[in-house]
Write a structure and sequence with these properties.
It contains two helices and five strands; from the N terminus they run E-E-H-E-E-E-H. The protein has a five-stranded antiparallel sheet with strand order 4-3-2-1-5. A hairpin with a 2-residue loop joins strand 3 and strand 4. It has 87 residues and is of the alpha+beta class. The chain has one domain: SH3 type barrels (Roll), CATH 2.30.30. The chain is globular, with a radius of gyration of 13 Å.
Length: 87
């Protein structure tokens, strides 16, 4: 099991969290492009909407609703905080 810190842009909001990469898959692109399964599993998610930001412990995101994906890398938690509007 692998987890990756990601910033995912959807239709009306962005999702910043950890994406689950199942056993047998080596890369996020393998998981996204797999014809098996229509959802990505995210944990520790921060949902950025027009109304503000909310935290969600677990989220299934339909792959068809994704516009872009950005891997946040090793400094994921620091980068997560810098992407969230404060104030």
């Amino acid at each position: 099991m692998k987890m990756c810190d990601m910033n995912i842009k959807g239709g009306c909001c962005s999702y910043i969290g950890d994406v689950y990469i199942p056993d047998g898959k080596n890369r996020l692109s393998d998981t996204i492009n797999s014809p098996n399964g229509k959802f990505l599993t995210l944990t520790d998610v921060q949902v950025l909407e027009n109304e503000g930001t909310r935290e969600v412990p677990f989220l299934l995101l339909n792959k068809d609703s994704i516009f872009s994906v950005e891997e946040l890398g090793d400094k994921g938690h620091e980068e997560k905080n810098s992407l969230i509007p404060h104030g």
